[in-house]
Amino acid sequence: MAGAQSASSSLPNNPSPTSSLENAYLGSVRPLALQPGVMSLTLDEAIRMGIAHNLGLQLAHVKQKNIRAEKLQTINYLTPNISLHAETGVHQYNLAAQGFHEAEAAQFARLDPGSNAPFPFITKVDVTTAQLNLSQQLFNWAGWDAWRAANAAVNATDYSANSAYGLVVLNVGDLYLEALASGTQVHMARALLRSEAVTLRHSEDEHEAGTVAGLDVLRARVAYQQQQQALLQAEDSFAKSKIALNRAIGLAPEQKIALAEAAPYANLPLMPIDRARLEAYQNRQDYQTLRAEIHAAFYERKAASHQRLPSLSFSGNWGVTGISGGLYHGTFAAVGTLSIPIFQEAKFRGDHDVAEAQLDELRTQMQDLKQKIDEQLRDSMLDVETSSQLMQVAASNLHLANETLADTTERYVAGVDTNLPVIEAQATVAQAQTRYIRSELQYNEAKLGFARNLGIVDQAFHGVQVASAQP
């Protein structure tokens, strides 16, 4: 059996959403029919739909089926083989070619002295044969090791398929959070546009009353139009993020959806690194995949070593043979075969060295994976802690910016100041809103990434049925 290849030597990073050709987990198969109206969509529903229709998960299950098929081929080598064979036909024999000569023919003639019939050396017979054949490997240590290697390879692909669940949850979760952030940006941009419109109307009224210069009106109109541009850009980003989400979960691109959840916020208490490392070793499917691949390579090396041992097999058949339409007689055979390899040492050594190299490579990958897991956990903890602090600072900054805007607006309405501080404060609020939305998104993505690095992000969704890619 060929050596099991590494299915997932390290936890892949979440790639940027570009194309399903570059990242299969951004694509889907068998998209759902377009539904009228707007579909309300929660995060859990999006993840379940993604698991049911995601392209990357479908490809993982295809690989799983291929490895299981290879295991069946190995099992067939160790199990009894039974076949039924029957044939009928006309056969022409050349007895002279079989060693019969005229001298032997004369001896046959003595059996019937009264017969003067010539003895034919070219004869035809109509023969019918039917038999049941059986063969069985009684002892083949190398074959048994190959079967155990195939079983370990199946376990490795099972773990790899389970890891694909986590990637689907991670990608769909990120896309949903990105869409939530874009929607929040649209909401805040509209609110700020309404504030800009109020400032513009007040400036126009004051200018008509002759209390402010035309520069104030011009300044307010420029700020209003800039905010209109910001709103259009935010709406465009929001629409694209929903299309990307639809693509990942199997909805039609033109399907209208409404995100039914607000951006989640909850503090995540971090755990000690030693505990996080042990939990990752227990739950991460890429780690379990590599362990199973090491077991498969270990048995493949044993199978290569045990090729030198003798093998014992049995074969036999039972049936009937006779002239078609005439007399039939039972036939049988029982054969035991002992095979002892002698002049194949070069092949045996080559197979053993190849299997040994594959095992050493996988063990080296395991050492590297343990270091990567430790690195990823530490990075995730830093990301969660830092993004939490950044979000708190961004929230405070947004609060202060709103207070500043309220104060400058009050001064402007009271006629104490021009609208310049108001417009500057509105620009500051817009920047603070963007930073807050981005920091909230980064914090939620950091928590999702930490759960993924622990191997627990997909535990609630392993029972979700995956749709078939067949029409």
From TrEMBL:
Major subcellular location class: membrane
GO molecular function terms noted in the UniProt entry: efflux transmembrane transporter activity; porin activity
Pfam families named among the record's database cross-references: OEP
Keywords annotated in UniProt: Cell outer membrane, Coiled coil, Membrane, Transmembrane, Transmembrane beta strand, Transport
Coiled coil spans: 352-379
Cellular component GO terms, alphabetical: cell outer membrane; efflux pump complex
Subcellular location: Cell outer membrane
Family: Belongs to the outer membrane factor (OMF) (TC 1.B.17) family.
Protein name: Outer membrane efflux protein family
Gene source species: Acidobacterium capsulatum (strain ATCC 51196 / DSM 11244 / BCRC 80197 / JCM 7670 / NBRC 15755 / NCIMB 13165 / 161)
